[in-house]
Design goal:
The chain is an alpha+beta fold. About 60% of the residues lie in helices and about 15% in strands. It is built from four helices and eight strands. Helix 1 (about 1-10) packs antiparallel against helix 2 (about 20-30).
């Protein structure tokens, strides 16, 4: 325990010499196989090997079962740094993708607005042309109407007024024919 505290104190004090650190770690590992905690021998001690640069802990034997301890090695730290960098790159790629998508969305909005204006302009032109055609049709119909009115006036002036019903002396009826043209008289 004292060796572990010395190693932690040396690391906190800025001691970076690997040889000193290894010596402190070796002091912690004793020759017997059991660890004494609180005056009672409880568990088997971990078998540890210390090499400059790599810290590895092998299997731990307990009375109940065999366990494997995991300790982060510099290799695992490098892997986690690589994972962090890859996550940062992924975040940058996602940010660029989101920016690209938002730019495409804005472009599509502008295209939609432009297309809408074009369609409105085309619709307005179409309606103007239809209005002009209808106006021309109205003018031609007015002209025809005036011609027909003039024709009616001409016929009114040139036609004979209808005969008034008179009493025929021969047939004794009120009709439009004259005594001389009575159909009953001609039949005799």
């Amino acid at each position: 325990m004292a060796g572990r505290e010395d190693a932690a104190a040396a690391a906190a004090a800025g001691v970076t010499d690997e040889a000193k650190l290894c010596n402190l770690m070796e002091q912690e590992v004793s020759e017997d196989e059991y660890v004494q905690v609180g005056g009672v021998l409880e568990r088997r001690k971990r078998k540890a090997t210390v090499t400059p640069g790599k810290l590895q802990i092998s299997k731990i034997e307990t009375p109940h079962k065999l366990q494997i301890s995991e300790v982060q090695t510099p290799h695992q730290l490098q892997i986690s740094e690589v994972e962090i960098k890859s996550k940062e790159v992924q975040a940058l790629v996602l940010a660029q993708d989101s920016q690209r998508i938002s730019q495409e969305n804005e472009n599509l909005r502008l295209q939609l607005a432009l297309k809408t204006k074009e369609l409105e302009h085309e619709e307005n032109q179409k309606l103007r042309l239809q209005l002009e055609l209808k106006n021309k049709d109205i003018e031609s119909l007015k002209k025809q109407n005036d011609e027909l009115k003039a024709e009616i006036e001409y016929y009114k002036k040139t036609t004979k007024p209808p005969r008034v019903a008179r009493r025929c002396r021969w047939c004794e009826e009120y009709t439009t024919h004259d005594y001389r043209n009575c159909p009953q008289r001609r039949s005799y």
